[in-house]
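re the bet — no i am not wrong, look at it urself. input seq straight from the record:
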Amino acid sequence: MNWKISYYQVTVATIQVQLINETDDHGGYYILRAMRLSRIAVHRATREDGKVVSKRTKSLSDLLKSLPKRQLIDMVVEIDARETRLIAIWSPKEKRHTFLVTNLNAEQFSATQISQL
C-alpha cells in the first residue's frame, strides 16, 4: 500500500512540473499550492517588508529554519531547471509554511495579492 501512495505523489509532482512548463511555454499563468519542496534551490528570498532573507543559493530545507512566521516570503527558485516564483505563507493552523508556485510577475502582483487569491 505504501508504494501506491509514493507512486501517486511522484506522479502528481511530475504532472505539476509538466503543467508549469507547458503553461509557461504557451504564455499562460498559474498559481499552484505546492508541497514537499525541501530539495529545490532557492536563489533569492525576500520578506514582505522588502528585507532580503537570502541572496545566495540554498536549498529550501536549509532556508526554512530562518524564515519568519509573521511575514510572507517571496522567493525565486529553480524547478526542473527553470526559475520560478515561490511564496511561503505561515499557516498557524497547520504550524508550517505552505507554498504557492506562480509565474505571475512580482512587479505587477505582490506576494500579498497572490496569497489572497
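see?? Confidence is low (pLDDT under 50) at residues 1-12. told u. also Residues 44 and 55 are 5 Å apart (CA to CA). so pay up
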